[in-house]
Amino acid sequence: MNAPTFKPVADCALLVEYGTEIDDEINRTVIALDHAIAAAEIAGVQEVVPALVNLLAVFDPLQTDHVQVEAAIRALLPVSPASDAEAAHHTLEVCYEDAPDLAAVAKACDMSAEAVINAHCAATYRVGMYGFAPGYAYLAGVPRDIQVPRKSAPVRDIPAGSVMIAGPQCLVTTIKMPTGWSIIGQSSARIMTGDPNRPFLFEVGDTVSFKRIRREAL
Amino acid sequence: MSRVRLRVSHAGPLVSFQDGGRPGHMRFGVSASGPMDRFGLAVANTALGQPTGATGIEVSLGGLVLECREGEVTFAVAGGGFTIDGAGVKSSGWTVRTLHAGETLAIRGGAWGSWAYLAFAGTIEADKWLGHTATHSMSGFGGGTLRSGDLIDISEAQIREDRIGDLPCPAFAKPDGTVHVVIGPQDQHFAPSSVESFLSTPFELTDAFDRMGVRLKGERLELSEALSIPSEPVLRGSVQVAGDGVPTVLLADHQTTGGYPKIATVLSHDVDRLAQMRAKDSLRFTAVDAAQAVALTRAQAQARRAYLEEIAKPRPSLNERLLRENLIGGVVKGDET
């Protein structure tokens, strides 16, 4: 993996970037650097926000500055891409019955709804980042056979717990929001756990798989 | 110490409970929220001897009218220059007064600013989310938005005679039309002429302005290529440019990631001042480098701290003050008091 680039963001952050195209190894490297920064407890760094190809290190400009934070992060390089073996795994139960877009996804992929469900359940996903809204974890790893593009117009008021896909990403919603993604199931998993000690179910880098359940079990 | 109950007779849109904000959860998709103008809430709280980030009410230009149903409590208003009409006394600007049962307090937009902060000498009872009452407008989590008919309870309410009076508004709290930015982090995706127009031409705020961000109007900023960048972390103050070439400045309840290129990012203190501007107000972006940005922020933080230290001191009690003023004025002799 090449060395990352560092860019100042306003008075209080640094963007550390490994690439400009979404790529599995790049994301794993970002996750590894996120872990390394957390372990290093760099003075003045307040929070780190990992994303698909880069991370943002936010610092207190009254305590430190871009130059010092960049030097402290450079001292941690290089990092090896994080492996799934070290990551926590979560299995989420999903009911695929009556999902609004399952038939359309099956049609677009020229396969049966049953085959779409089987493909979705067979894959292992990785939490590439959170974004958009609280607890919206972007899960990378939708099998190529069932990848569909985003809808051309968003649909309003999609309920929490919707399991939806767009391109290579899958997401389980946490609040009622509009979305252009295809809804293929419903999960009772609570990504916002309500537990103050661990308010969000996944850490970035964790792996996730889905288990099919009947409606009665939801 | 007493209990106070207020009833909301009118609340405009976007009037919400806010404490100092909940930093530290951006990695889980949660922006810090908190006051649009962080200094405004800090002033209102400090003037009452409260911690800077104690829960207050953020009042939008839509205004807020409260009836005091029960108890009495000293309150402070700061932030924008709003008008305050309480118990028949009308004033404008930053002030500390006391509200008693049976009285009404109305806070409405005034000479300048988009947001005012109402703090009380006591504890506003509001719901917390992730340890904070700050309202995250997109989800509604936290203390929440105020609506007509709501009841607000304040526990440990106090009368603070030693705090009563108007507060001076320092010049640095008001927007002056200059907004400092550090260029980037995606300036490379813009035509060089766009970066130049971004810095050399004025922009106007539009009324597409809420707690998530404000859309600007001005010269179209051309991207050098049609592109979609991978979603990446953004900050309060990020200036993102959508495909239509129109910049939006992200504010307190911003999404934590975004796929639009950011031409620049506004410095923290300037985000507070920018948030106090109104639709149709004009601004100019001024670029500084990273080291200058840190130096500016440190100087600005020092000025804020000095001001807060000054207003944190209790004023002499009313009696002492009257006595002193009288003695200074020579109107009342010692034996007459």
TrEMBL record, chain A:
EC no. given is 3.5.1.54
Alphabetized UniProt keyword annotations: ATP-binding, Hydrolase, Nucleotide-binding
**Domain Carboxyltransferase per the UniProt entry, residue ranges:** 4-202
Gene Ontology MF terms: allophanate hydrolase activity; ATP binding
Which Gene3D superfamilies does this UniProt record tie to the protein?
3.30.1360.40, Cyclophilin-like
Spell out the protein name for this chain.
Answer: Allophanate hydrolase 2 subunit 1
Q: Which Pfam families match?
A: CT_C_D (PF02682)
Name the enzyme's class: hydrolase
- The organism's place on the tree of life at top rank: Bacteria
InterPro entries from the xrefs? CT_C_D (IPR003833), Cyclophilin-like_dom_sf (IPR029000), PxpB (IPR010016)
